Structure formats: C-alpha cells, structure tokens
Please model this.
Amino acid sequence: MAHTSVSIALTGSGGAGVMTAGQSLLDAAAKAGFYGLMGRTLGPQIRGGESAALLRLGTHPVQGTDDGYDIIVAFDWGNFARFHDEMPLNPGSVVIADPHNGAVPDVLAPSNPHVVMVPFHDLAKGIQGGRVNMVGLGLIAALIGLDQAFLIERLSRQLAGKGAEALAASKAGLEAGAGAAAAITGVAPLSAPDPARGERWSLTGNEAAGLGAIQGGVRFCAAYPITPATDVLEWLAPNLPKVGGMLVQCEDELASINMLLGASFGGTPSVTATSGPGLALMTESLGLAVASETPLVVVNVQRGGPSTGIPTKSEQSDLNIAVHGLHGDAPHVVTAPLSIGDCLFTTQWSVYLAESLQTPVIVLSDQVLGQSRAIIDRPADIAFIGRRRVPETLDASYRRYELTADGISPMALPGMEGASYTAEGLEHNPFGHPSTQTNFHEEQLAKRRRKVEGFDYGDPWAMTAGDPDADIVVLTWGSSTEPAREAMERVRAEGRRVRLVAARLIAPVPVDRLTAALEGARHVVVVEQNHSGQYCNLLRAHMDLPGTVHPLHRPGPLPLRPGEIVDHLRGL
Amino acid sequence: METVEEFLAHAVALEEDSAVRFDDMADALEVHQNDEVTGLFRRMAHFSRLHLAEAQKMAEGLDLPHFKPWEYKWPDAEAPETPEMDATHYLMTPHHALTLALDSEKRGHAFYADLAANNGNDRIRELAMEFAEEEAEHVALLETMLAKYPLPPGDWDEDMDPPVAVD
Amino acid sequence: MDVPLEETPVYKVKSYKSDLKPIWCPGCGDFSVLSAIMRALTELQLPPHQVSLVSGIGCSSRLPAYSTLYGFHSVHGRALPVASGLKLSRPDLTVLAVGGDGDGFSIGGNHFIHACRRNVDMTYIVMDNSVYGMTKGQASPTTDPEWPGSKLTPDGPGVAAFKPLEMALSAGATFIARAFSGDPLEVARQICEGIQHPGFSFVHVLSPCVTYRPEQKTWRERVHEGFPEPTDDRREAFLRLLDDDAFSTGILYKGRTGAFQPHAEATTRAVALGDQFVI
Model:
C-alpha cells in the first residue's frame, strides 16, 4: 500500500553531507510534484559535527513533523545517543546503516525496527569521487518511488561549476544506492502526487518572514547576528537593496533597535530579527517605541531559554517577555505565525499593524518554523500594506500626540515644513513637550491603550478549523498549531468532533473574539511548547475560559508531535 | 576694520547678540522663578533692540558685508556687549544683574572708544565716537540704577534645599 | 539695491528656537551650545524641517525640544544609533546628535566607538561637564579619579578618565574637534564645519556644570587654542593628543575617508521577490 506521507531522517557526522543530501531530496521531490518539509538537528561543532536532516514528504501539504520516522539512513552512529530522541521511529520503520559502523545503537532497540545493512562507504569508495550521501540519496529515492531523474536534474544545477566528473560520480552514487535498495523489502512508496497542483514554493520560515516584511513595506533593517534568526537577515541583506532598501549590521541589539527607531522616525518602515537574548536587550527601546509612538517590527525567532539556553532548538518560551517585558504600562502588539508558510502572512500583517498603530509589533516565530524548509502552495496575495497616518495640514497647531477618538495621531515626518516636533520618551502633553502632570499621563496612557485595544484586527486574528460546533477546542498559538491540527484530524477520523482555534494575535488579548470562538466549548486544550504554560496563563489573566481548561505544554528541545496531542484528546 | 559698512555690520551684530543673550538669560531666570532679574534682563534685551534698530537705520541703503559669527573682529571671544552666560545664577539679585549689564556696556564703550581713537578711517572714527558717547550714557544710567541695589549679604546664593534628581 | 534672492537670509536664529524654555540651571554651559547650534544652522541657512536633532538622556539631552527641528529625545545612551538609522534611511536630512559625557562615553560608549568607525555623515556634539547632573552629581567617565564630590564615590572614582578625542581618533572618526562653551562662537564654527564635513564629526564641548562642579568656572582660564589648524595626518593627530592637557581647543583632525551611506535604486517590485521561491 502506498503512503500519502513518509518521514525520513538522514544522519551522519564528519562531513558526510547529510544536509546537502536532504536539501537535494526535498528539491527533487518538490520538482516531482510532492509537498514536503525539512528540518535539521545539529551538534555544537561549527564544522564536521554530528547532524541529521529530518524530512517529511507527502502528496498533500505537510508543514508539521509526524510522530516518528519511517526511514532512518545512518551513514554513521557518531554521537547518535545525543539526539536519538529527536528521531523516534514509527511502527514498522526501517533503519539502514553501514555494517562497518557496528551494530544499531541499543537506544533504537525498543522500537524494534527493521534493520538493513548497506555498505555505504564501500559503495562510495568503489566510485571515482564517490560520496556516501549520493549513495544514500539514490537508495531513498528508489525506496519511496521518486524518479531519479529529478535528483539528477537537481544535482546537475548544483554541480554545474564542478565539471562533468563530479556529476558522473554523483550519478554513479545514485545508481549504487538504487541497486542496494532493490534488496530492501517492506517499505511502501509514496502515492503519486496530485497532477492538478498549481504553482508551489520552497522556502523557510525565516525567508518567508523576510519576504513578508518587504511586501509589507519595510525598507530598512538593522540587526545583530543571532541563532536562529540570522537567516532572516541573510535573506534580507541581498533582497532589500532590490527594492531600494538596506540592511545595516550593528554593534549589538541595542544599536539595532535604536537604528530602527531612527529610520522609522524618518518615515521608513523598519524591521529587525533576533532571538531571546537579543529581544531582552531591546526591551528598553521597545518601551521608547511605545511612548514615542514609533512603528517597528521585531521578528523574534524563539529558541530554548532562559539565558543562552539552547540556541539551535525550538521553544515557545518568549511569550512572557514579548507581552510583559516592557517597563511601565506599555501596550503594544504581539503576533505569532502559525506555520512556515504563514511566517509570510503574519510578518506582512505585523508591518501593517505597526504602521497603522504607530507601535512596536513583536512577531513570535521560532527555530522550527524559521529554520525548516517547506514546499507549499503559492501563498495567496496579501492585501495588508503598511500605511502611516500623516497630518493633513501643517502648521503651528500640529500636535504630534493629539488625543483622537481612535488613539492614532497623525505622524509628521522630517522634511514636512511646519509640523516639526520632538519624539519623546518622557511622558508628554499632546504637543510632545515633557510633562509630569497627572492629566497628561492619564490621557496619553489611555490614548496609547485605546489605539492598540480598540483596533479592528479583522479575521487574521486567528485561524479556525475542524467542526465549528464541537465541544472540544484545541487552542494553539504559533508553531504548536501544525501538530495540533494534525492531531485534530486524526481524532476526527476516529469519529470525534473537535475544532481548532489558532491565535495569530497574542497581545492585546482579543477577549471578545476568543470568547466568541470558544463559545460552547466544554474542553479547551491549550497546546504550547514551553515549561510553564505561558499562553494559557496569559489568557487566564484576561478572561474566563469556558468549560474545563487543559493546559498541554512542555518545553523543547523536542518538537511537539501530533501523537502526544492525540493521546490527550482521546482521554477527554 | 576699514569700511563704514564693516563698522556698521559690527554695530548691528553687537546689539543683536546682546539682545539675544539677555533674552536667553531672562528665559533661564524665568524658569527658575526669579522674576525680578527676569524683568531686568528683558529690559536689557529691549534696550539692545532699540539700539539695534538705530544701527540698522544708519545702515539703510548700504550693502553691509556678511560675516560668519566667528569672523567678526571682536576684542574678545564674543561681541563686547554680550554678557557671559556663566555669570548668571538662579538666585542672583538685581545687583548682580545690573553689574553684569554694566560690565557689558563698559566693554561696548571701550570697543567704540578704541575705534574712535585708533581707526584709520575718518568716517569710522566719527561714527565710533558717536556710538562711544551713547554707550557712556548707558554706563552712567546703569551706574545710577546699580546704586539703588547695594551688594547683597554674602549668603545670597545659599539654598537650604539640596538639588533634585530629574531624569 | 538688488540682492540676489539666494543670498537673502531666510532663516534667523529664532527660526530654530522653540517656545519651550530650557530647564537648565542659569550659568550652565549647555545654553551656549544650544545657541551655537542655532548660529551654525543659521549660517548654513538649513531649513529647520530638513534638520533632525537626536539625543539620549541627561541635562544636555533635553536640547531637541528647545529647537524647531525634528527632534528625537530617545533613551539613555542611544542617541547615536537612533541618529545613524535616521541618516542612513534619510540621507537628504542634516542629522545632529547631542548629549552628555555619561550618555555618550559611559552607557553609550560602545555606540560611540562604532559610530566613529561607521562614519555616517552626521555631527555628534557632546557637552562634557564630567558629572551626572540629572541624578545629583555622580562621577562620569571623564571625571578626575581623585574627585571626592559624590556620595557614590566619596574617595573619588579612582578610575582613570576617559579620553574622548583619543578614543574617537583610534576608532576612526574623520572629524574631531574640541571647544569650550564659554567661547560659543568657536563652538558654532566647529559645528558648522562638522556639518559640512562628509562623515562622522565629533565636537567635544567642555561645558561646565555650575551646580555640581562650580570649580569648573576656572575652565575659562585653563582652555587654550591647542589645535589652531586641523591635520589630515593621523600620526600627527595622535602626537598632538599625547601633548594634550584635556583643555586644548580647535579642530584637531579632518580625515578624508568618505562617509558610509549604502544606497540602492529599486530594481524590483516587492511582490516579485517571491518568484525566487517558485519551484
């Protein structure tokens, strides 16, 4: 029987080239018409460490990992014990290893996999310029029924500069692998892809966030490198100039966020990308952005915390600092993309929100969204483009922080004659003049809150799916959405009625919309990847959730998997 | 200084700078609620502007040269009738304020008197003499005013409260 | 008589002055710097709405609100990155940054170093009084190690004073000058030249604090014209600084490195950038 999705892990160390092989496999599968996803796990070494490419390929869109892997190809077992728990096995999975590396590690024994020995290194050595990763690729392609021609096309482009010998060696490697696959039984191939598919894209969440920022109107980025956010910056650096913008590398995150304030004050929509430690450094000036009403967007690609934590692994544990990290009463916006592809929409929407509301927006992406690559359908066009309200008349009556009904005051830009003002982090009167007067403090606090809480965020505030009237609601935010969605579908396939509410808008907490979305719920399962249930706590501080609340949360580094959510749902 | 235009450019700048500085000092004292001295400085600024108008009237029809602020040929760092900002104090008394003003008028007088005595241009000497005479009148006037405000006791700048922390 | 239109001064000193009155202590050196900035702008006839003035926190950082320029009173130590972001994204503007010695050399010290080496075309004016005035008179990076005047460091800070000009020169600033607030026309001249210099211009102004450092009244006697003419030779500039008693005034150094200003013309529509992801 053919599968609609297959999960594959390639593992190896010391330059085995598993990442390149994984990327080639994903690209070739994409060309062949499949959807897919590739994540990675890495050792601490900068070069030559143990690493694994973690793929899931499917006939339908897949943006989350499965419970386990169907095929593990191990070129060696270097430090496998360190990350074996990131590669659980599905029932009936096959482990393919090189006999020269000894027996399969004991940690895999409880899963009772079908073990096949393939002499990858000997096969590669038999080819002039041969490499084990090509042998592995050929083997996997044959097992899952992927036409080798797609791999050869991909390799031809990749090796274009390396001469005919390199390509010939790779082809020979693929052939050797395919030959070895012939002896392996019991692995079902993938079903044929949908021939009616439209245009599809291959991108990471970090690239999608960069694209969303630019499409939203961003033309300036200032940033400091940090794992796992650096890829956002590396994508923006060559792409911002194409639209007349620029990226500046700064001395630290303090400089980054403050350069954004300067650029945005000048009228240029601006973004930076960072991770927890960087966000912590930026919080003082995020408060300045709130007080001075200067729009900007921070894409925070979360990693394990606190402190330096686990830089290369995912966790949803920066919600607290993003929502509560600013001193004083500082209303601002926090959003979260729901999938790799949604990093595009959510970031673009966030630029629109920042510009409309003249306030900072923090986008809570994370390592697993940011650094995984997905094959997705072409994203729909997004209507949200940042537009800042500017004054209509320019004269001495202009008040930068004028009290308006919606709390949004027209913002003059340097160069506009007759409306100059001083952007102010001290509490101020409507003209922006510093003041400690009670009435000004109260008015400005209320105005800043009014604009953020009274805004019509519209339908994008959340994504809903499943049975609209189900009394079980799975409530997620950010990257916990995809595993929860898959879990919901599995439980529904068993005949249970379940609905999913996935929040893009974290703060301000959209109490009315959440209340409506949760109406009739008898069980609310709040799924998130952190140790303390930060989102659940946030909601409980703002509203009474209906029915019985089931906080379902655990920290990284292991990704949330559908199976653990299914287990919980079955128990309700 | 060689031409009448040059001379008048200096005369204009001298009064203009003086007016601006007295106004700045009045603002500073006003913020510190020293109303008496604020009033005195405002009057000084007002007088400087009256003299400025006179100098400008004399310059009518003439094409005065433009000098960058630091290019004027003043005997000291600033124009002679510009009081030094660091001579102000939030508790200063009219005695101090008038002494400050008197000093600046004396410097103005000395500036013109020197030109009247030593400049090589007859017309400049003539004009400088006129200006010096006028400054002498101001000096005399201020001396009369100052006589009404004797030197205050030595503890005039004592403040029982310590300075405060602001930001 | 006919005066060509472009020579008629449109902007006067008061064009740059706001209605807000400074809260500085009467006698403070910062008044002179405020007036010097306005005189420099008047001399250059820069339209107020085309000039932006960015500051951090401290007495001198209150300065933007006293002007009719587009001001940004930011947070402590961050004036330089705010100003850099503004100038990089809006090269059409004249950008000035102002602040004090604590703001610029202590909490903002790292930005100072990197602003010097980044060499963005803007002018940074530091009003240095060697004391924290807004928090009641603590020692700053430029305070003498023996100064006993603060309750925080009653025996003196005990740490060698920061040398702003040496630091600026080492870090790569291309315009370095020092003036004394008691000579406001010289301050104005240096600011004027700094604005015209294409790159990062650092004007260090000795600006006495009458409240916490009344002894700084003697600065008037101590300052001397140590740098009559700028040099463009870094070696010469370093030698001058080795002989500097911290009271030499004048423009020390004017380098010739071009300003950092990335510029790109748009060649693509934003929506077309997604094409690179198409399979």
Notes: Chain A is about 35% helix and 20% strand. Chain A touches chain C through 69 residues (CB under 8 Å).
